[in-house]
Design goal:
about 450 residues, mainly alpha, transmembrane, transmembrane helix, DUF4153 domain-containing protein, Perm_prefix_1, membrane
């Protein structure tokens, strides 16, 4: 049953929300969606417009949290079965179920081989560091290409972007351990992250909903990767301790073989786990954001107190400014993940006020840092690092200011939450463009020093 485009968009957003309820299977969601569509069609034929029909049909369908609880009571076994990596089937269907894990493991092994080869054959310390992301992200994008069935146009565009980046980081005659080489090492992963995002959305980067899905994917990928890293680190540590007791030193093998394969392999496997089991970990997201938001507020208040007690802004230590930049980026990541995990249909509440406080404090810290950076530039002159840091802080200032303005409107019930979501997703490509400018333009502008 085909409905108007705007209604189809609303149904797609509703379906994505419902699918994140782990107790509801895909077949159940299909049944609910079919019922919703018939309700909308009946209401439209009775004289209501499209938006009114959708809202009334959703109201009649009921509260999805209550529906989820009901499904959980009736199908409690699903909560455990969903943790399985492949379905319990046999025959041809079971064979096809193993295809994706096999492809993922092959890509993970390929990423490990690429990193191992890079560490072995690339000369110097800076070259492997500049190429580290280039050795891993193409395998992640290849997984998305297989999963999303990219068109030739998307494949060509991504290949051209990867080639341009690879040429820039390898052909430029960098001064060893110079400032521009360090900037490239730090900013190239941001460009690769943006390219992976284009791959994740299947080339539909203009879709705000798909960009927000990528934000959610990034947060869940970080969770899975950390969990895999912790588990793997414990296993490697225990194995090494046991072997040392019998006189076998495992450290050369760990550094030369295990880590080059384990880290990139875990990254690819974590991406697959997010794709396969995102409805399991996504229920952790609201808990994590509610725990870390107040803690981050306390941290930002402490930072403001430290800056106030440090005396003149010119005397602020450069390393402190770098650390505070990293903290602000983490705050922004927390904000984005909180927004991606929130039900956009719910009204403003206490936690939204907490997020607004977080954004305002981050704005205050960023303003102080910008003032300190400008003072240092006026005193000591320009450098590649200072310009790059200044650019990042200006981008953060605009991003956080927009988020604060829209959050105030939402908390005061004058704006919809979707406006805040839209601002986040529309602004994300700006960071990728800036990082690309730093990687491609900064080295020749500053003489590759």
């Amino acid at each position: 049953m085909t409905l108007p485009t705007e209604t189809e968009t609303q149904i797609a957003r509703w379906r994505g929300y419902v699918q994140r309820r782990q107790a509801i299977s895909v077949d159940d969601v299909d049944e609910l969606e079919d019922h919703l569509r018939h309700q909308i069609a009946d209401l439209t034929s009775s004289g209501l417009d499209d938006e009114e029909s959708f809202l009334v049909a959703i109201k009649r369908l009921g509260n999805m949290d209550a529906i989820s609880r009901e499904y959980a009571r009736e199908h409690s076994d699903r909560l455990w079965k969903q943790l399985a990596l492949v379905p319990e089937t046999s025959g041809p269907a079971g064979s096809s179920a193993w295809r994706e894990p096999a492809i993922v493991l092959g890509l993970a092994a390929g990423a490990g081989l690429a990193v191992k080869a890079g560490l072995t054959w690339m000369p110097g310390a800076g070259v492997p560091a500049r190429n580290c992301g280039l050795l891993v992200f193409p395998f992640l994008t290849a997984y998305f290409a297989w999963k999303r069935r990219f068109s030739a146009r998307v494949v060509t565009a991504l290949l051209i972007a990867f080639v341009i980046l690879a040429v820039a980081v390898n052909v430029y005659p960098f001064v060893p351990a110079g400032s521009t080489e360090l900037l490239v090492i730090l900013h190239a992963p941001v460009v690769l992250w943006l390219l992976a995002g284009v791959g994740y959305v299947g080339g539909r980067w203009r879709s705000g909903g798909r960009r927000m899905d990528f934000v959610r994917f990034t947060g869940e990928l970080a969770i899975y990767f950390v969990l895999l890293g912790l588990g793997g680190g414990i296993l490697i540590g225990l194995t090494s301790a046991v072997l040392q007791l019998v006189g076998v030193d495992l450290e050369p093998v760990i550094g030369g073989w295990i880590l080059p394969f384990a880290a990139p392999g875990a990254f690819i496997v974590a991406a697959w786990l997010v794709e396969a089991k995102q409805n399991v970990v996504e229920n952790i997201a609201p808990v994590l954001t509610r725990v870390f938001t107040p803690l981050t507020i306390v941290m930002l208040l402490t930072l403001l107190a430290v800056l106030a007690a440090s005396g003149g802004l010119i005397e602020v230590d450069r390393d402190l400014l770098i650390l505070m930049d990293a903290i602000l980026i983490l705050v922004l990541a927390l904000l984005l993940y909180s927004i991606s995990a929130r039900d956009s249909l719910s009204r403003a509440g206490f936690f939204d006020v907490m997020q607004l406080i977080l954004v305002v404090l981050a704005l205050a810290v960023d303003a102080v840092m910008l003032t300190a950076m400008l003072a240092r530039i006026a005193e000591f002159g320009f450098s590649p690092n200072k310009i790059a840091a200044l650019g990042v802080n200006l981008l953060l200032l605009v991003h956080l200011a927009g988020a604060a303005r829209l959050s105030v409107g939402f908390v005061r019930n004058r704006r919809r939450f979707t406006a805040l979501e839209r601002w986040q997703t529309q602004y994300l490509p700006v960071y990728g463009v800036w990082a690309a400018a730093v990687v491609v333009a900064f080295p020749p502008l500053f003489g590759f020093a």
